[in-house]
Design a protein that fits this description.
By secondary structure, this protein is α+β, with helices and mostly antiparallel strands. It is built from 20 helices and 20 strands. The protein has a domain at 248-354 and 420-535: Gamma-glutamyltranspeptidase, small (S) subunit (Glutamine Phosphoribosylpyrophosphate, subunit 1, domain 1), CATH 3.60.20.
Length: 536
Amino acid sequence: MTHGIVTAPQPEAVEAGAEALKAGGNAVDAAIACALVQTAVDPQMSGIAGFGSMHLYLPNENQHMVLDFHGRAPLAVTPDMWEDLILHEAEDGFGFILEGRVNEMGYQSITTPMSLRAYATALERFGTMDIAELIKPAIGYAEDGFMVRPHVSYFWNVVEGTGRVPTIEKFKSSVGTKKIYFKEDGSLRVPGEILKNPDMAKTYRRIAENGVDDFYAGAIARDIVADIQANGGLISMEDLAAAKPEESQPIWGEYRGLKVATNPPPGGGVMVLEMLNILENFDLKAMGHNSADYIATVSEAMKIATVDKDNHVGDPRFVDVPLERLTSKAYAAEMAARIKSGEKTHVPRVGPKTDESKDTTHVSVVDEFGNCVSMTHSLGMPSGVVSDGLGFMYNGCMGVFDPRPGNPDSLAPGKSRFTAMCPTMLFDGDTPFFITGAPGGTFITMGVLQSILNAVDFGMDAQQAVAAPRFCTTSDTIDVSNRVLRSVEAELQSRGYPTRRTYLSYHFAGVHAVRLQDGKWDGGADPGRDGMALEV
């Protein structure tokens, strides 16, 4: 009997999700089992002290919703508390570089941990298994260790650009972190070596025995707040008590006769819909995949959506987002006409250029009952902080707030900031066709967009759609992966486009997808990560 299909960037997590399906669980059970293992075997990409967005299509429950669990600024923040520390804005809009790096590293960089509460909420409402059962594989990997994979090692050691603090430096900033990640000789483990985290295993056992409330209102919560406040952080017991996911309806669009459902602001779904609407005005297939015409056209749509995001999109509890206009076909037609006229959109940035870390993970699951779950969850840019004895790392989501008062992503107590996370589903009529999502900072929306174009316009299966060479344009420069033809890059340059080639063959998000066609599933796992797609 076929139970379903799971795809994610970590093989250990995919297997845990598959085992949940084999044990009789549904797609929600499998997604949470997968997510919990991800927190143990990819502990800077995600964690129980992180945030995310979960897109659920559950036809037997007559439910289609987004469970948003975006990190929130502590209630103690003030709008102007970092205004005098600005050095410059990140090139792709993924936050600001501040003096002392207080927004991206250390205790002040932490927003309210949301992920664990969201996992529990999804299970309580729609799962068939208990979190105490589903957390067991994660406990095993924390206690017995996991083998360091290539992408885990890459992330620990990579130095991206000239602004962000490298992960290895963040590891050195916290006593609780240093004892987990550094060997006795002061070096990090290399691929193939085993990393054990017994403190994480102990915390996970406490959660299994005492319930998730222990993390938000009990003994674990008190341990969290005591350490954070002793070190100048802002999270309080009141912040933890208020940590609850928000249920919202997907926002909808259409692309070439297919219905598109994605997450609302402050998630990145609005950008996906806007770009698809613009690109529907072009015959992309006739241009040829990754031709100069194609890359230039798609890049202009990317830039337009990026400028609109920077100017208008934030937490709708605090910001009036012009969602109807940004996702309308009429507005898209105006933008398409601008592209056809040859106009190049400029993406303004504050200060010198820099690159950023992209720290997130994703899981897509479809089960035998037709339930579909697409969840992106993250630590943002990890804070580097592990409270000694607890084992898990806190998010560093304060790094993407705008320290200038009066802007869509400016600081405010309890506010969430924009995130490019956009777990997205396409439907042929009422039947799911393509389930997609990705990690990758501001690259996420651009990777998800290209996976959709690959599947719809070019007829690729899920693996082809996530593995085809990608590009990304979140500034005036078109960034291309190393498999984009150099002749195409030269033609773009001749048209006046600045380009930048990465040494990586697979880059710009780590897209994972499932396609359903003719009653059969096929899955795709981005080859740039370590994962796989597994049908059981």
